[in-house]
Please model this.
Amino acid sequence: MNYSGIIAVGMFVNMVSSVSTFAATAPGAIRLGNMEPKFTLADCHNEDDSGYQEGSLGISPNSPFDGGAVIVLANCHTERANNPHATDHGTVSITDALALAERLCRQVPDGYKIDCLAVQYAAIARWLPKGGDYGVVYDVLNKASEDLHQVAKDNRDRYNEKKDFTVQLDGRRKSVGKPIHSIRPGAQASANVAAIQIIQEAQTVLLRSTENSSRRQVHYQRIATAIDSNKVLLRS
Amino acid sequence: MSDYQYIGTLKNTVNDARVISQTLDGIGFKVTTLLDAPHDELRKTIDEFSFESETADLALIYFAGHGVEVQGENFLVPVDANAKSNKDIQRYSVSLKDFMKSVDRARKMRIVILDSCRNNPFGDALDTTQSNQTTTDSSSTATRGGGNGLAPASPDRGTLVAFAARDGEVALDGVGNNSPFATALADKLSQPGLEISLMFRQIRDQVLTETRNLQEPHTYGSLSGTPFFLAGPTETQLTAQIDDRSSAWSELRPSQEQQLAVLARGGDTRSMLGLAYIRLNPEEARYDPAEAVKLLQEAARAGSAEAQFELAKLYETGIGMEQDQNLALDFYQQSADQDFADAINDLGFMYYQGGLGLTSNPQKALTFFARAADLRHPQAMFNFAALIDDGLVADKGPSDAAGYLYDALRSGNQDVLDLLSERPNMFKAPTRRALQSKLQEHSFYTGTIDGDFGPGTQRGIRKAYGLDN
Model:
C-alpha cells in the first residue's frame, strides 16, 4: 500500500484477496436500490434495446425485469461524443456501473478477479465519450483495463483455461462477458499487489482530476468515490 | 486625510472618504472608516484589516490624502507626519506596498485606490530626484522630475491599483465638496451590473470629461478573468456566482458586452477572456465553443496566461476543438512559465500521475506543487500538504503540512473545507494535531490537541474558513 502514499484502497483489496460469499438477494430483478432508471444506455442504442449484450453492464428503462436497471453494453461513441458535458444522470450511471462491476467480480473465483475487473472497466469505458468532460474517465478506465489484463496475462495459469463465468447478481444471472485468465497460484500475491497499484493509479487520476470552479469537479469526485479512495489531490 | 499638522491641509479628502465609505456600505461592504488618522492608528488599522481580509472575497482600500513618491516608492501620508528627509517619510508614512500587502490575501479580488497624488507636500525637504532611475514605465510623464504625483505601481496578478491621476501627474482636489475622481468613483461603484474593468474605464472617461482632460485616472495590475460586479450583477441580484466564470460573465448586459468587444478589438486580453467565457456557457444562447477558442487563442498569443491555461483545458478535453494532448501540455507549460498558479498546479498533477503523455515523475511534480503553493494556490497548498503528510517531501513534516492546510482553508476553497470536514483521516494523526494547534494559535479552537476532529475541531475549521458556525 505504499504506492505514492496518496490513495489507500479498501474495496479492491478485499475483492482480490477474499473468497467470495456474495449471494443474490433480490430474485427476479436487477435493481439499483429503488432508483428510477437514470442516464439510460438505451439513449444510445436502438429503441428495441437490441444493443443489449448478455452479461454486460448498463442501464435501460426497457428492462423486462420489474422496471429495474439493467446494465447494457453498447458502443455509443458516435452519439456520446456529441455531448461534451458531464451530467448528473451520466455520472450516476457511471458510479452505478462501477459498483456493479465490483459486485460482479467479487463473485468470480479469486484467480479470475483481476481479469474480470479488466473486462468490466473496458465495458464501462466503451459507452463513454472519448472526449469532453468524461474523456478523462474514458482514458482512466481503459488504461486500468489494459494494465489489469496485462497483469492477468503475464501471470496466467497455463493449466487453467480462459473461462467465462456466470454469477447471480441480485437474483439474475450475469456473465463476465468474455473468457478471462486465471492467475497461477504462486503468482497470486504479486499479481494482487500489481493490480492494487493499477487501481490506485486509476483512483488517483480520477480524484486528482477534481477541478475547482468547474462543472467537472463534482462528477469526477463522485466517480472516484465509487472506486473508493483515501486521499485526494485537487486540480485547479 | 485632511487636517495635516505639519504640511498643507486638503479641503475635500475627508468628504471624499465619507462619500466612498457610505457608497461601499450601501452596496454591502463591511467598511472600516478612518478619518484624519495619525500614523500609529493607521498602521494598527491596516494590520487588523489584513487579517480580516483573509476571509473576504474582495478587499478594497481607498485612500484620500497626501501621497508622495520617494525614489520610486509611493508613500501615503498620515496627518501627523513631519518629514524632513526621505527616511522620515518611510518612518512616518505608510507605503503603497503596505496597502497591497494588507489586501493580498483576499480571496477573489484585491483593490487599492489612491486618490492622493495631489502634489509633493514636503517641497524640497525630500530628495525625489532618484525616482527617474527607479521607474521604468514608459508612460511616466515629464512632471515626475519635479517630485509631483506618484510612481507607477507594479501589483501582483489579481490585484488592481487605481490612481486618481496617471503616475507622475497631479490629481485635482475639486472645486466642490469632492474631488472629481471621488465623485466619479462613488457614482460608478453603486451602479448595479457594472463589471469592474468597465467601471474603472467609465470612471476614467468621466474624470477626463469633468477636468477637461487635465486629469486621467489610471489602473495598474491585471484582474483575474473572474468578472466582478461590485454592486451586484443586476438590481435584483446581489452577487454573481463568481466561482463559475462562464455563468458570471453571462450576467453581463448586452451594452457592456459591446464595450467588452471594443476593448477586445483594442487588444485587451481580459475582455477577450470575458467574451470567451460567455461563449463557453452551455446554458447560453450565445454558446459557441469554436468562437471561444478563437478568442482564447488571440488572448494567448497576446500573452494572457489565463487564456493559455483555458486553452490547455479545452485541448485536454476536446471541447471546441480536436483533443490534442501535446498542445494541451504546451499551453499548460506556457501558462506556468508566466507563473500562473492554476497551470503550475495542474502540471504538478500531470507529472504526478503521468498524464498528457508525460512519464510519471513524482519528484518533479513536487516542485510544481511547491511552486504553486508558494503562490498561495489553494489546491496546490492542499496537495503539497498531502504529499508532506505522506512523507514524500524532505525536510518538511506535520507542522509544515498543517501550515499549508490552514492557509488553504483560509483561502476559502470549498473542496478543502469539505475534505477536512468530512474526511480528516486522510491525514495522519501528527498532521491533524498540528492543524489543531494552528487553529488554536489563531483562536479558532480551544479544545484538546488530540488529532480527533470532533465537533470542536470542526467548528474551528469552519471559523478559520470564515463561517460563523
Summary: The interface with chain B takes residues 4-6, 84-85, 130-133, 135-136, 201, 204-205, 208-210, 212-213, 215, 217, 230-236 of chain A (CB under 8 Å). The two ends of chain A are 27 Å apart (CA to CA).
